[in-house]
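Illustration 12: P-type Cu(+) transporter.
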Amino acid sequence: MSQKTRLALRGMRCAACVGSVEDALKNVTGVQSVSVNLGDRSASVEGDAPVDALVAAIDEAGFKATPMNAEYGEAERQAEEAQHLQAIKRRTWVALLVGIPQMLFMMTGHLPMLDEARLLWALIGLVTLAMMIYSGGHFFVGAWTALKHRHATMDTLIALGTGSAWLYSTLMVIWPDIVPAEGRHVYYEAAAFIIGLVNLGQVLETRARGQASQAIRALMQLQPDTATLILSNGDEKPMRLASLQTSDLLRVKPGERIPVDGVLAEGDTQVDESMLTGEPLPLRKAKGDVLSAGTVNLSGSIKMRVRKVGEETTLARIIEQVRQAQAQKPAIGRLADDISRVFVPVVIVIALITAFIWWLVGPEPRVLMPLQPQWPSL
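Figure caption equivalent — predicted structure in token form:
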């Protein structure tokens, strides 16, 4: 039987990651359609594939996934997002505190030349390395994971760029004589600045993602966490909505929100349905009338019979439609995803070709100039 499964994703930071996740899920037997949303880091899968198989496929692609269900919902996910945002902020501040002073001192000429203070530059290199491990370690882990799974992502470019800058600079500090004097430069500030700015971009992106999800959160807050279940002996007890079943009898007191879809079984009241219809005036409800989740019982204490629970309620369908609207991609968005799949490899190839041409015919100084007389015989 076909079903829809929502998965919360981790480790997905660019459009190239979207393609990798989509390809991994589409290869799972039983999957009919896949929609991966980079904005809220989620995937929606339709088909009869087991959830464990979907999670395993994403894990095999180098990412992490958690099924969205009663145990792990939007509230838990928002808490994780808040923790993630605080962690990125700390990484950003550390990287910028290391990178900005270096950049300013180099621009104003307050740092000595490499040959004049190699010990100082070695210390700067160690501080930059510590920053790269703390603030940029996740980029290198992501790049290594992508390499193991034979694809390239944004992490690949960041790791290559910052890693190359640090390695070249450290080589100049330890062994400067391997290049001409004109090529003896250090780029520690570039590594720090790149990591700091990319992390800053992720902070802004995470905030924007939270703002974009406000509509969904506002809708979800319309539904209470628990309902008052009337037992067969007449006693009443609070019950989580996930534990309710159709035909259960519930008590809804004045001022409370209707927890699930159902029909009025006993009593009469007025209900505010403005969240559904936009109509500001309350509607009178009598026995047998339909009640919708998220609406407000205004006057009488009533009993209602459950008819729909979980994803079948009207409110849940509205939330799902909002999610689908956010996840839908225009044609230009799909084109951007297709380009992103090859963007990183193309950039790397262009960089290698540029370096090779510079080595062959570029102006002095060339990094490998001491080997120039030997290159035709290679």
